[in-house]
Amino acid sequence: MNKEFRIKIPYITNLILSVSLIFALLSFISPDIISARDFSGEWYVKNLESEIIVNKDSSLNITEKITADCPQCFDKHGIFRTLATYYITDNNKKINLPIKLESITDFKGKSHKFEASKDPFSKNITWKIGDAGKTVSGENYYQIKYKVKNAVRSNNDFDELYWNVVGTSWDIEIENSQTKIIFPNGIDQLTTKINLYSGALLEKSNLFANYEWDKNSLIINQTQTLPAYTGITASITFPKNIVQPYTPSWWETNQNNFWYFLPIIVFIICFSLWKKYGIDPKIRAGRVPEFGPPNNFSPLYLGLIQSGWSVDNRSITAEIIKDKTN
Out of the domains of life, which is the source (predicted)? Predict the structure, then answer.
């Protein structure tokens, strides 16, 4: 055996022993102490706690308490919250969901800066929450309160709340979520039928959630981490006549037709302004003087005045004509 080979054997043996010792030590260390999250430079939702109050006018009052975490972030400013403003039913009917934002704060009620926008194609609204001039890291807390109208579907034999309790628009992972849906009296475990769908958009199976009842409140629990762009949808059917069908306002019914009437409205406004300020005023013609020979003066006498008291043939002719016509 050559000398080089004898040297390598102890080296390899020591290397194997060292690696084995490291793995053995790591196996005894609590996962809470060393976690991939602790070294992450990306946002994730650590906890999403939602409360949804179902009103008798088919509206929802929603409060979302979001704990977003990014242990090693250095260029993050906040989060995005995106909501759909309509959905299409199985029979291809469009259902509008008017949304009114009430507040965006932290858990203590301090306001967060945000910008609201609406996608011209999907019609989704997005709240960009955070200060562009300030970066954040670690745990950050966001509480969003908003109201949604027309959230309960009215069917022939039953009514249905079909709602994305965790929407598929989140572009970051959600580690844990819990949603509490509070129903009016008459809607409880005995009068409802529940189906949960979880996963990607339009998913018809359930891999990420379960539910339980607490009197007239339904609690939906997330069972494992939701990847980005996945969510949880609840379909809850209950008897009719407990929740009244939504009646949209005139503006909500006709706002999509507004652009058709806009040219007419602009024409009426422009015509009114032109009629008030643009028509040229009518100018009355002034009195025009008429000139003629003085009364009671003969042509001969006027000719004398004009010629400096000299008689000419024209004056004599004019005098003769006047005498013949009188």
Answer: Bacteria
The number of residues in the chain equals 326
d(CA 268, CA 273): 9
Specify burial of residue 188 (Cβ count, 10 A radius: 0-12, 13-18, 19+): middle
| Cβ-contact 166, 52 below 8 angstroms | no
Q: Which of 86, 97, 15, 92 is nearest to 62 (CA)?
A: 97
Question: What DSSP state is assigned to residue 38?
Answer: G
Confidence of residue 252 (pLDDT cuts 50, 70, 90): low
Q: Would you say 304 and 310 are in contact if contact means Cβ atoms under 8 Å apart? A: yes
**In whole angstroms, how large is the CA radius of gyration of the chain?**
44
Query: 3-12, 45-54, 101-110: lowest mean pLDDT where?
Result: 3-12
Domain limits of the chain? Answer: 37-248, 295-326
- Please state, in angstroms and rounded to a whole number, the distance separating the CA atoms of residues 260 and 263: 7
Place of tokens 């406004």: 269
The CATH code belonging to domain 37-248 is 2.60.40.1730
